[in-house]
User: Which sequence fits this backbone?
């Protein structure tokens, strides 16, 4: 009888020893390193039927990061995906695979980043492992060592064994020093631990229940809704699940563990030494990929994904150039590569801000969350207040915009993700805000009203596109971070209303509101782009990217004028400029905000937006900056006439975000100096936990309240460099 094996491919990890090819955004398993296929594709290719008629493979199960969903779908569209909101090591991943299958299923666990060049030998070992697995044992695959390797863990078997012969495991051994590795090689009963193993589902579940019950319980709680192609692990329960490897959690404790020695030309492509060895016949041979010239050199791994690399008179180096980075390090010093990559990622993550600046900013933000968590919510009438006074008192009498309710939900959800210590309070406010939006602010005919009185009764019941974009943003973000199901329903309902009631089938895009008003604006479409990126991050739904693509097309064909590099604000019904081209008004902050969102869209889809982004920033900087204060003006005309010389905080925060994301542009200031000015003039000059919303042309405070809406802009900017993950 043919036995079906279910391959499970572990697709986590960031491949830090292969930086800059491998990055957190596109780790090594999604790269073509040893052939024209990605490592993940090569792994899946091994599970096609071999000569053995007694074994067949099902469609693979792939366990990977939620952030890589698009890459997983693109690489292996047929695979079943289990998506983790964040990494929790291999034991929770194995538990999730078990819970996705039947008790008598046979699972074969394989990392996505290994090279196996003798697939028939692999299949023969799998055949041997079937019998052991069916007998209630956990079968590992021990690689017959060819050298005293110190970079691998070892399996100590009870005896030296022939290939493809099942033998009991006595011990798992950590990566040894060289002297011990030589002894292992001489002993004959030590094998490299490939991290590949097979078992029946009920066997592993019983082992997890006995040796790692908190892991199994946490994953069970996190196992959310399933459909035909995907399971998403819910973040709250998964966050509480212990992070531990399957080796430590089960394999080193279980008694019924065996190994099958196999010689399948295996390698763990962990760094440039392994990659160079796989692609060359000798240590002195050079490997070149991409535009490269090598003269009088030996032992090189050279790869360029852009610029020409020319090398002469060197030896034993890995030289790698991507579009953004160049790395040169000794070929056989994987630790140096990892350290360089970590430092570059750290500097990029900090965007030129020193640890001292970041600590000061975090302290300020935590204090702001403390204040707003106590004062933002109206305990008597419900809902979030619109503003605080400059003395720090909540204004419970001011009318409330529905979009601000959504922005506060978004902000407190992000507080959880960013690591604000009072997580329970943030979750409480998210849940309260979501319930308030869902129960009290809906329009009876669908969608949400525009503004309400403090008691929640409507003042303006039009249903506004801008408001609904923030419903999607808040709902999707709250669901992704806190797992609040009602939040996702709000996002879904908002999308349904936008599509059914606001879609303009004649001219493209979406109407301003229902009932409709003129002029039409680019700004709601910008926030709809932002919302759809967030919705895709929360759900992986392709329809979100389709709507995001339409927003980008409108920008490219209607909103942005390449003749003067102005992103117009107002339009007629058929998307013509609302007025004379030279008198077109634009807000510098929107130029910066579009640049950031187009950057995020390009990272997500690969659609080239670089020229648009650079031109947006350049134009805003050229004609939108107050020469006296260095801050962006509120409103400028295409002919460079400043219409509003004040400077609101949000323009400055959006400029900071845009500049931080565009390090390839030369500015006559640093991100650190820009942020320091924002901190001094706007943030720390306000009341405790508050801020100055606007300064005049001379830099003097020109407002007398602290608007709640600004917390959203602060959070999105601080999130660049303050994040718990």
Assistant:
């Amino acid at each position: 009888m043919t036995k079906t094996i279910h391959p499970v491919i572990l697709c986590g990890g960031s491949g830090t020893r292969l930086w800059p090819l491998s990055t957190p955004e596109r780790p090594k398993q999604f790269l073509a390193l040893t052939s024209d296929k990605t490592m993940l594709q090569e792994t899946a290719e091994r599970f096609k039927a071999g000569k053995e008629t007694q074994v067949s493979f099902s469609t693979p199960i792939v366990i990977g990061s939620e952030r890589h969903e698009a890459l997983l779908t693109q690489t292996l569209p047929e695979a079943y995906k289990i998506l983790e909101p964040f990494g929790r090591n291999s034991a929770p991943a194995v538990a999730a695979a078990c819970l996705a299958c039947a008790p008598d299923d046979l699972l074969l666990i394989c990392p996505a980043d290994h090279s196996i060049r003798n697939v028939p030998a692999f299949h023969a070992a799998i055949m041997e492992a079937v019998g052991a697995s069916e007998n209630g044992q956990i079968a590992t695959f021990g690689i017959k060592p060819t050298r005293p390797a110190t970079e691998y863990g070892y399996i100590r078997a009870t005896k030296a064994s022939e290939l493809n012969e099942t033998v009991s495991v006595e011990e798992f051994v950590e990566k040894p020093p060289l002297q011990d590795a030589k002894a292992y090689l001489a002993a004959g009963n030590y094998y490299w631990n490939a991290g590949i193993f097979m078992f029946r589902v009920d066997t592993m579940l019983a082992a997890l229940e006995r040796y790692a019950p908190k892991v199994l319980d946490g994953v069970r709680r996190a196992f959310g809704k399933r459909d035909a192609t995907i399971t998403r692990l819910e973040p709250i329960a998964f966050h509480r699940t212990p992070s531990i490897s399957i080796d430590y959690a089960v394999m080193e404790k279980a008694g019924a563990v065996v190994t099958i020695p196999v010689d399948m030309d295996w390698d763990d492509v962990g760094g440039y030494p392994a990659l160079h060895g796989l692609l060359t016949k000798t240590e002195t041979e050079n490997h070149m990929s991409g535009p490269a010239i090598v003269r009088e050199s030996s032992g090189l791994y050279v790869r360029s994904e852009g610029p020409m690399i020319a090398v002469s008179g060197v030896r034993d180096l890995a030289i790698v150039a991507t579009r953004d980075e160049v790395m040169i390090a000794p070929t056989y010093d994987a630790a140096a590569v990892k350290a360089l990559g970590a430092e570059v990622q750290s500097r990029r993550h900090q965007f030129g801000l020193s640890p001292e600046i970041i600590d000061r900013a975090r302290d300020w933000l935590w204090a702001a969350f403390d204040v707003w968590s106590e004062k933002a919510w109206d305990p008597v009438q419900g809902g979030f207040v619109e503003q605080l006074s400059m003395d720090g008192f909540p204004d419970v009498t001011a009318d409330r915009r529905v979009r601000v309710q959504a922005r506060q939900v978004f902000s407190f959800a992000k507080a959880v993700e960013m690591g604000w210590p009072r997580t329970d309070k943030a979750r409480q406010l998210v849940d309260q805000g979501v319930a308030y939006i869902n129960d009290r602010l809906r329009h009876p005919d669908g969608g949400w009203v525009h503004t309400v009185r403090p008691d929640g009764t409507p003042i303006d019941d039009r249903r506004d596109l801008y408001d609904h974009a923030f419903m999607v943003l808040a709902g999707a973000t709250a669901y992704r971070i806190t797992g609040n199901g009602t939040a996702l329903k709000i996002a879904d309902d908002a999308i349904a209303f936008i599509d059914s009631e606001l879609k303009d089938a004649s001219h493209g895009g979406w109407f301003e509101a229902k009932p409709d008003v003129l002029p039409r604006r680019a700004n709601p479409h910008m926030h709809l782009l932002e919302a759809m990126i967030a919705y895709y991050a929360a759900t992986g739904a392709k329809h979100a990217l389709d709507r995001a693509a339409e927003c980008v097309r409108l920008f490219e064909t209607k909103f942005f004028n390449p003749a003067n590099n102005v992103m117009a604000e107002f339009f007629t019904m058929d998307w013509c400029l609302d007025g004379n081209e030279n008198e077109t008004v634009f807000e510098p902050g929107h130029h910066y905000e579009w640049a950031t969102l187009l950057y995020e869209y390009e990272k997500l889809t690969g659609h080239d937006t670089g020229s648009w982004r650079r031109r947006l920033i350049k134009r805003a900087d050229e004609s939108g900056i107050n020469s006296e204060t260095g801050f962006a003006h509120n409103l400028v005309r295409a002919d460079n006439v400043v219409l509003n010389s004040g400077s609101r905080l949000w323009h400055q925060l959006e400029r900071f975000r845009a500049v931080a994301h565009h390090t390839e542009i030369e500015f006559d200031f640093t991100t650190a100096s820009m942020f320091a000015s924002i901190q001094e003039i706007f943030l720390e000059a306000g009341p405790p936990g508050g801020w100055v919303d606007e300064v005049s042309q001379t830099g003097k405070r020109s407002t007398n309240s602290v608007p709640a809406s600004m917390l959203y802009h602060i959070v999105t900017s601080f999130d660049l460099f303050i994040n718990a993950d």
Q: What stands out?
A: The chain has 23 helices and 36 strands.
